[in-house]
Structure formats: C-alpha cells, structure tokens
Design brief:
It is a single chain. By secondary structure, this protein is mostly beta strands. The chain has two domains: 130 residues, Jelly Rolls, CATH 2.60.120; 129 residues, Sandwich (Jelly Rolls). Helix content is 4%, strand content 42%. The chain contains two helices and 23 strands. Strands 1-3-4-11-6-9-12 form a seven-stranded mixed sheet, with no helix packed on it. Strand 18 and strand 19 form a beta hairpin. The longest helix is centred in the first third of the chain and has 8 residues. It starts with a strand and ends in a 7-residue tail after the last strand. The mean pLDDT is 93.
C-alpha cells in the first residue's frame, strides 16, 4: 500500500509539474490480477482498484491501517467500471454490473473480488474510517434516477448520480457517486468550490483518448493537472476542484470528513480566481 502525504498550500505553489503530479495524481490503479491501494492523509481515505483474472482477489491486509484486517474499523464503497463481476462478502456473493455500486460496512473480515463471465470486471474502491456498522447494500445503476443540472450554454449540463449518501445507502462518513455529462458539455463543478470540513478524491474514467484539465490549488493561486483515463486526483480541503475535458468523460467522486451533507461546500466566485 502506497502512502500519500500532502504539502501545505504555500509549498504546493512552489512545486514543478512533475512534483505536483507526484503529490496529487494517482495513475496505474487498474492492474490485471492485482489489488492496488493508496493510503492518503485526506481524512485517512484509502483508494484503489481490483482487477481479478483467474483467481479471486481479497482486500489487502496492511500495517498502515493498524488493524487485524482491512475493514475492522473501516467501511468501503466499490464501483464496477468494467463488465459484470462479483464481490464476495463472507458467505454472500454480490453480482455487480457496469456502474453498479456495493457498500460494505465496518467489521467484514472476508471480502474478495471475482471475475464474471466475460472476464472484464474492474472494481474501483474508496474506504474511510468507520465508528459503527451499517449493513451491506447494493445500488444498481438502473435504479439511480437523477435530474440534470447546469446550463448547456456554459457547457456544464450534467447528471450527479448519488450512490452512497444520507438519503440512500447509509454509511458512517463515506459519500460516493459519479457524474456524467450531456453531449457537448465538458465542464465539471464550475464555478468551483472548496470543502473546508471534508476532503475528496476524483477518479476520471471513460475518457478514451481525451484528457481532462483539472484545476486545483488555492483560488488566488490555481494550478492544474492533465488527467488521463482512470487516473485519480487527490483534493485537500483547501483546494478548489473543477475541470474541463477535451471530449466526453465521467468521474467518480468520493468524500470523507465531518459531515455527509452533499451541499456543504464553500463556493468560489469566478471573479476571485487567478
């Protein structure tokens, strides 16, 4: 498991392009036949991926969690970005189609990822510390209904699909979902905002050959990352987060922190951006 510690806003302003990418961007998550995991100091969130091939892949036991097994004091949200696959939790196996989500609560010791008939399952996950157990639950992509937001004239017409949240699947602190765009729209989360009471991890996917220019940093000293398909961006509480793609894309967002209110954000005026 790789550890990620973050520089201060002042130090971030001095980083080179390569140094900025090394601190805030995670690539190479989806490795055939392996589980990858990255432990961050963003509210102790762990993000990673599992790409099972022939054999099931268990959640890793790592000294970084300080516990006997991965979910002893944690919860996890899993989103299948590939074809049909299974996640086994104890004696129960859950089948997940494309963009189906599974929440697993604190205390589940035996969790493993398994491939489906096509052999193309690809699981992305985010885990946060947990203080109580909530029941395991599945959210089917076909059951999520959202109304579009944004303005086509501003190229930000999009749908926010909430999967793990207070009005749906319950958790201790994890909030997770994904955003997708209507044709011709490419801007996400614009105008931007910060989260002073929680932190966030983005995973951009379905970019194909496109890229996303992800804006980050303090509002008065913005930086940017060029992000490619299935790369994750780590967003501290002090950093804005928004971006625009050169073509169609989706992104997973996951948050942990003091509360789970989706609208708890500090808006940033476009007039203050530099």
């Amino acid at each position: 498991m790789q550890l990620h510690y973050f520089p201060t806003p002042e130090a971030t302003n001095t980083l080179s392009t390569d140094e900025l990418r090394a601190r805030f961007l995670i690539g190479g998550l989806f490795q055939p036949g392996a589980v990858t995991a990255h432990y961050t100091d963003l509210d102790r969130m762990i993000t990673g991926a599992a790409v099972p091939t022939r054999a099931p892949l268990p959640l890793p036991d790592a000294k970084e969690t300080g516990t006997r097994f991965f979910l002893e004091r944690r919860e996890i949200g899993i989103l299948n970005l590939g074809a049909e696959g299974q996640v086994r939790v104890g004696a129960v196996t859950y089948t997940l189609g494309t963009l189906d989500c599974l929440y697993i609560g604190q205390g589940e010791k035996d969790v493993a990822f398994e491939n489906g008939p096509s052999g193309q399952a690809q699981f992305y996950f985010v885990s946060t510390p947990a203080h109580a157990k909530h029941p395991t639950a599945v959210v089917r992509r076909a059951e999520v209904r959202t109304d579009p937001i944004g303005d086509p004239a501003k190229a930000n017409r999009r749908r926010i699909n909430k999967l793990i949240h207070p009005d749906g699947v319950k958790s201790c602190q994890l909030v997770l979902g994904f955003t997708e765009f209507e044709p011709g729209s490419v801007w996400n989360t614009m105008p931007p905002h910060t989260h002073s009471r929680r932190t966030e991890i983005y995973l951009y996917f379905d970019l194909n050959d496109s890229v996303v220019i992800h804006l980050m940093g303090e509002p008065h000293a913005t930086r940017h990352l060029v992000v490619r398909d299935r790369e994750a961006v780590l967003s501290p509480a002090w950093s804005i987060h928004c971006g625009a793609g050169t073509g169609a894309y989706r992104f997973v967002w996951a948050m942990g922190g003091d509360n789970q209110v989706f609208a708890d954000m500090d808006a940033v005026s476009l007039a203050t951006l530099k």
